[in-house]
């Protein structure tokens, strides 16, 4: 399993995840849901999709697995990145407004995805 192959799959699946995450966040916040809840709702929807796809496609190998232990590790990583993402989104919303928060979602999540790739590759999906 090459780093290039994993990176390519992670980017493709991550793009799909991000679109789901962003769309849910925008729909919820546009409907009047507070940014904290809207961002968490978006991240949950993207995470549900990404955990399974990345485990089965991106990081699939003899030394990896998609099971209970990996789900626990994924949840720990997800909680940390969600806290950072939500803090960033609520700060941007409070300081600059809702539309800026919508636009800032991509760069914030892209930075967190880089961290997520390394943590997933070396810890989350390991047996």
From TrEMBL:
Similarity field: Belongs to the GtrA family.
InterPro entries the record matches: GtrA_CellWall_Glycosyl, GtrA_DPMS_TM
Transmembrane segments: none
Organism of derivation: Marilutibacter maris
Keywords: Membrane, Transmembrane, Transmembrane helix
Start and end residues of each GtrA/DPMS transmembrane domain: 10-124
GO biological process, one term: polysaccharide biosynthetic process
One Gene Ontology CC term in the entry: plasma membrane
Membrane topology: Multi-pass membrane protein
PANTHER family assigned to the protein according to its UniProt record, in alphabetical order: PROPHAGE BACTOPRENOL-LINKED GLUCOSE TRANSLOCASE HOMOLOG (PTHR38459:SF1)
Signal peptide limits: none
Protein name: GtrA family protein
Protein localization: Membrane
Family matches, as Pfam families: GtrA_DPMS_TM (PF04138)
Chief location bin: membrane
């Amino acid at each position: 399993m090459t780093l290039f192959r994993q990176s390519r799959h992670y980017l493709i699946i991550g793009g799909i995840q991000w679109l789901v995450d962003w769309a849910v966040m925008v729909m919820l916040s546009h409907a009047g849901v507070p940014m904290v809840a809207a961002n968490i709702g978006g991240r949950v929807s993207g995470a549900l999709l990404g955990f399974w796809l990345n485990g089965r496609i991106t990081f699939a190998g003899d030394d990896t697995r998609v099971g209970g232990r990996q789900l626990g590790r994924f949840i720990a990583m997800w909680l940390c990145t969600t806290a950072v993402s939500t803090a960033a989104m609520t700060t941007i919303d409070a300081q600059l407004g809702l539309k800026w928060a919508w636009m800032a979602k991509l760069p914030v999540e892209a930075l967190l995805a880089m961290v997520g790739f390394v943590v997933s590759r070396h810890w989350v999906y390991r047996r």
